[in-house]
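Running co-folding for 2-phosphoglycolic acid.
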Amino acid sequence: MRKKIVAGNWKMNKNPFEAIEIAKKLKNEIKNNNDSETIIFVPSIDLFCVSEILKASQIKIGAQNFYFENNGAYTGEISAQMLKETGINYALVGHSERRILFGENDEMINKKIARALEHQITPVLCVGENLQQRENNLTTEFIRMQIKSALKNIKLKNAGKIIIAYEPIWAIGTGKTADKNQAQEICYEIRKVLGEIYNLNLASQIRILYGGSVNLKNADELFEMQDIDGGLIGGASLKEDFISIANNICKTNFADMEIHV
Ligand code: PGA
C-alpha cells in the first residue's frame, strides 16, 4: 500500500525567523505516525534553519527549486548537490509557477529530475493543464506529454523514487478545486502512462498527489480517491488547516490501493 503524503508548498512566504516559529509549531502539533508522511517545501533561505528544528521529527523538508548543474557561474542559483549536502532530501520540480513565470521548459525539468535522482533527492514532479487546455479537451494528451518529457531517459531503477503532483493550473490559488472525480481521472491517467513507460508494478508504487486549492474541507474526499495519494498544498499550508489535514490523514481508513491500469 502506498503511504499517503501531505505536502506544504510555502511558495515565497516566511523569512527564517517566521519559518522557525512555524516549524516548531508543526513539530509540536503534527502527530507522529507510520501511515503517512508530511513534507514542507520552504523558501531556500529557510531550508537550513527549518531542517535544524525538524531534524529529530518525522516532518521532512524540501526545496522549491534548484538548478540542474552541480556548481559554477550560475548567479542566484542553488544546486541539488548543495541541497543534499545540507541534508535536504526532497525538491519540487516543474511547478507551474516556475514554468510560467520563470520560463522552465520540459528539457530543463527533465535535467532537474535526473540531477535530483543522482543526488538521492526525491523529486516531486508537478504537472497540470491550463483552463484553455481543459476546455478544449486536451488535458489528458498534455499531461501525458509532460510526464513523458520529464521522465525521458530516467531509468526504471530510479523512477520508483519519484513523486508526481497533478496540479491543474486553473485550480492553483484560485479557490477552484478540481472535483474528486476530475482529479482522480487525471491521476489515473498519470498512473497509466507510468505503466506504459515503465511497468504496472512501478506504476502501482509511485505516489501521485493532487494540488490546487486543497483545504480542510475538501482534503478528505480527494485523498480517499483510489489514485490520489495525498496533496500538495499551497495557501492552506500556512494556516492551522495544514496541521489538521496532516493529522486527519492518518485517521482516515483508505481502501486498499490496488493498481487497475
Ligand atoms: P494552492 O497551491 O493550494 O494555494 O492552490 C498549490 C500549489 O501551487 O502547489
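Result summary
Residues 9, 167, 172-173, 211-214, 232-236 surround 2-phosphoglycolic acid (CB under 6 Å).
The chain is about 40% helix and 15% strand.
Job closed.
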